Amino acid sequence: MKVLNTLAAILLIVGGLNWGLVAIAEFDLVAEIVGLEFGETNALTRIVYGLVGLSAVYAIGVLVTSRGRSVQPIAAALAVGAIALAAVGGSASASPRAQGTIVETAVASGQFKTLAKLLTNAGLVGTLQKPGPYTVFAPTDAAFKKVPSKTLTALAKNKAKLKAVLLYHVIAGKVPAAKVVKLESAKTVSGRRVSIRVAGSNVFVNDAKVTRPDVMASNGVIHVVNRVLLPPQ
C-alpha cells in the first residue's frame, strides 16, 4: 500500500507541475522530455497522462473507502491535490485568457522567438497587428531549427524573399480548424497556395503538421505547425 501511495504521489506531483507549466507558459514538460513539440503526443506521453489520472482516482478511492483514523495522510493529501488540480483546470478552461493580437500572442507564448524576429526584420509586425482578421500557420522555434542554416542566412539577406516566405504562412480571414479540415488548399497572402490534407486525426499544411490548432488572437487565429512552409521554386 505504501508503495502505491508513493507512486501515486510522485505521479500527481509530476502531473501538477506539468499542467501548471502548460497553463502558465504553454510548455509541456512530458512532451519536451520525449522529444515532442508542444501539442504533440505519442504512446508514451499518453501512458504518462493516463497514469496521472489513475493516480488521482486511486487517491480519492483510498480516502473514500477508509474509515476514521485509518485514513492515511498521504492518501488524503493526494485526494485534496487531485480535487484542487481539477478545480484549477476547470476554472482555467472556463475563463478564457485575455487575447492580444497575433504577434502579441505569439511573443507571449515563448515558442515563436525566431518567427517574431523574422517578422520584425521583414517589416510585417505592423501588418499582423492590424484588425485583419488573419490566419497564421506559425512554425515554432524547433521548426526553424529544421531549416538549413544556409537557407535562413539567405532569407535574412533578402528582405523581399523573407517577406514572401512569411506571407506564405498567412491567410486573409479567420479560418478555424473546423474549416481548415474541409479545405484541400488555401490561398495565402503571398499569392501562392498551400495544400491541406487530413490523415487520421492529423492535419497537414504542405508537409507541416498542425500540432496545436485554434490559438485565438484578437485579430485572427494561429495554428501551430512543426515545419516552416517554403514556397515552391
Which helices and strands, and how do they pair?
Elements: H1 2-25, H2 29-33, H3 43-65, H4 73-94, H5 102-109, H6 113-122, H7 125-129, E1 134-139, H8 141-145, H9 149-157, H10 159-167, E2 170-172, H11 177-180, E3 185-187, E4 193-199, E5 202-205, E6 208-217, E7 220-225
Parallel strand pairs: 1-7
Antiparallel strand pairs: 1-2, 3-4, 4-5, 5-6, 6-7
Radius of gyration equals 22 Å
State the CATH architecture of the largest domain: Roll
CATH topology of the largest domain: FAS1 domain
Tally of structural domains: 2
Helix content: 40-55%
Return the average pLDDT rounded to an integer: 76
Number of H/I helices: 11
CATH-wise, what's the superfamily of the largest domain? FAS1 domain
- The dominant shape is elongated
Q: Give the H and E element order.
A: HHHHHHHEHHHEHEEEEE
Task: Classify the secondary structure makeup into a structural class.
Answer: alpha+beta
- Using DSSP, what is the number of strands? 7
Q: Mind summarizing the main beta sheet?
A: 7 strands, mixed
In the CATH hierarchy, what is the class of the largest domain?
A: Mainly Beta
Instruction: List the strand order in the largest sheet.
Output: 2-1-7-6-5-4-3
Q: Beta-sheet strand percentage?
A: 15-25%
Through-space gap between termini: 64 Å
Q: Report the uncertain regions.
A: 85-98
Question: Explain this structure to me?
Answer:
It is a single chain. α1 (2-25) packs parallel to α4 (73-94) and α6 (113-122) crosses α10 (159-167). The termini are far apart. Helix content is 53%, strand content 17%. β6 and β7 (220-225) form a beta hairpin. The chain has 233 residues and is of the alpha+beta class. The protein folds into two domains: 2-94, no CATH class; 102-225, FAS1 domain, CATH 2.30.180.10. The protein has a seven-stranded mixed beta sheet. It has eleven helices and seven strands.
